[in-house]
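Case study B.
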Amino acid sequence: MATQTAVARNSRPSGLADVLELILDKGLVIDAFVRVSLVGIELLTVDARIVVASVDTYLRFAEAVNRLDLTEASQAQTLPDLLGDMGSRASSGKTRGALEGGKEKVQETLTPDREQEEEASERR
Amino acid sequence: MAARNESPKYVYGIIKADAGSRFSVEGVGDPGSPVSSIKLRDIRAVVSDVEPSPVRGSRRNLMAHSRVLEDVSARCTVLPMRFGVVLPDEEAVKKEILEPRYELWCRLLDRFEGLVELTLKAVYRAEPILREILEEDRSVAEMRERARTSVGERAYFDNVELGEMVAQRVEARGERDAAAMIERLRGLSVEVKVNPVSVDRMLLNAAFLVQREDIEAFDAAVNEIGGQVGERIHFKYLGPLPPYSFVQMDQDRAA
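Model:
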């Protein structure tokens, strides 16, 4: 799997999460005249904006760390190495295997993978 | 035919009067009505007719609101409204929105002329950051060992502690990496708004107010950053958008 190094700019919000963040939270406010019925709206993505570090967060990190297969040769470099060395970075494609054992996936909210799934399902 | 100006008006935003009055997308509602505008001297409110009831916060309506603003923004500067602004009729739009803050709208339209919003979110990819932390910090590697071998209730507490150590280190790296990105992009922006990060492993959630003619240079800078850190960090880069994140700030200041 190729990791993304080119960053494409989307000219329109690709999913509901992007749109919600912009038009519910921002823009001009004319308080007396906002008349919205929020029945039926998916508020999950709205609530997800406010993240309070919690035990759940810590357990997710612990689970992710515990699943790392450290017997695989690490491809990681330190930050200074990464910023200074663009040429000789080895492909990190094969490290993905450690997290995707069988049908299991680490479920995390709005991770890159999850976001891509959301985008794929919301693109109309 | 009933007088159209008696219909409730959904307001999307404000533009200059000379920016033109032809719009090609549908507005909110099912079905959505054509988008038009209501003029007062040198400004216009971009509107469409809606039913006389609260606007449903449905996916359809939210996306329609967003699309109308994208369509308008592609042609001219627009001050975007928050979702859900509805007035009883055309007169009310003039009397309650356009007239009372006329000077402010004119000033904001001048201020945002030729400016667009670009947003950048950055999230650490799951594995690289965790490996980095494990390798750079013995205490985390040791805690991991302890958590893996403990049992029962002890295991739960050890994992919470492990997770907290990791979370703190991810956050610390995130602040450092985000600061470097903002520094790189600040010089190409008129203004920057940094929002709170909203999910695990997100390190940056920022809006940049940029001159239209600087978009290409901004793209290049974002891609330069992506080239350097793209294997550890996933980006979501959006725009050009109407200046959603910046109009409110100006409105507050002017109030």
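Chain B has a mean pLDDT of 91. The remaining cases will be described in the next quarterly update.
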